[in-house]
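Bug #2210: token dump truncated for Tyrosinase?
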Amino acid sequence: MLLFALGFLLVILQPSTGQFPRVCANVQSLLRKECCPPWDGDGSPCGELSNRGSCQNILLSQAPLGPQFPFSGVDDREDWPSVFYNRTCRCEGNFMGFSCGECKFGFSGLNCTERQVKTRRNIFQLTASEKNKFLAYLNLAKNIPSQDYVIATGTYAQMNNGSNPMFRDINVYDLFVWMHYYASRDTLLGGSNVWRDIDFAHEAPGFLPWHRVFLLMWERQIQRITGDENFTIPYWDWRDAEDCEVCNDEYMGGRHPTNPNLLSPASIFSSWQVICTQSEEYNSQQALCSATGEGPIRRNPGNNDKSRTPRLPSSADVEFCLSLTQYESGSMDKMANYSFRNTLEGFADPQTAISNPAQSGLHNALHIYMNGSMSQVQGSANDPIFVLHHAFVDSIFERWLRKHRPMLEVYPAANAPIGHNRENYMVPFIPLYRNGEFFKSSRELGYDYEYLQEPALQSLQDFLTPYLQQARQIWAWLVGAAVFGGIVTAMLTGLIRACRKKKGGTSSEIQPLLIESEDYNNITYQSNF
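Reproduced locally. Full output below:
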């Protein structure tokens, strides 16, 4: 009870991170298409008086999109968030947030100048106290309303282009469930028509950066509602697992004794209500998910369609995936071959990297294996195993980044499916984040994984590796330059000696030593290589 009261107080006092800021979910803001709320620190929009940021026009990417979405002007998520707002806070330096009142990921302190790197740990390495605290934090988030964010219950057209706002409150945990739904929902075309081949968070290059941001925001929100600034999301390392190791009452909930599709009554998650799981009903009504309860979490791990997902992923699957050198390829969707992203997401075979949407590998395999709420994309975040699973998927993404050290330009700048180009803003996040901003090492974003942490010597090697690789690429030029330099040096030395001999005569008695014996050992040689 004390924890609940403390959390409720903290969520009132602290800003959160989500979708529509409550202060901008009103007629005035929607009609002006502006979301530049004042920062509490000085009362000025975006903290401008304190040089934290300023209200600016949104700069949208003009890069061409792929052919997967043949429409324009029919979906509120196109050119996010311009349908709702075309002016938002642009924060300076290490400041972040819809009012520039927060620090960027990886920074802390009054002026956001203190670097920090926190460690995400294997859930089975947590002590009993740490594990129980994590479960309590999850339940707390499910029962605390978000004070700073609301969700949309209607499209912009249904809101009469902003003159009739349609928003509602939501708890902190379900806010993230709703955001995952909103990014992956179908496009409503009017009547009973929908377009299903659209997803702003899956089946394209943005899959990994989008979920990376999602977890960072979720992690920060838990830190705030609990006051535990050291909290990090644990991960479940499911490689070579024979069954769902976290599916018991000690962790994420066991199986119900009489209904195998439900959770054990002994689990705190058995009382949770899911939201946003009835996509066909929303489509038929041309409506958005309103976040009303739709029944308990469903999960029946292992009783899935074995022809699609015969087993959980193996270590060999992960290692093969990590060996792929291309982040993205071809059509940059679920049909992409030899794509690290598509193979990790699970639409390509983890042994050949050839696209096979009829099978589910790696990331997708876990969702299908759970055989319940997690197996339907739009509502999958209802099951709290979602965050454990995606934290481990993110760690594989991090391993690939460290192994291949790609330049930002490796992330596609153009012709990706809608919303997935490098400079596109991620749907439906406010504050705004571009896909390319999170195509970099997790340590730059303030977190690491326990099993990826390296000793100092390895870190030095990692630092030197890219430079050594560049040296290998130009070794022939360097050797040539060294040889040429040696020849020139020899010729000059010969000329100097000849000149000195001619000038001073041939008597060795009057020739001084070129090098005093005591200085000889102090000579250093520097090669050109």
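Output looks complete on our side. The domain at 22-303+371-452 is CATH 1.10.1280.10 (di-copper center containing domain from catechol oxidase). Marking as cannot-reproduce; reopen if the truncation happens again.
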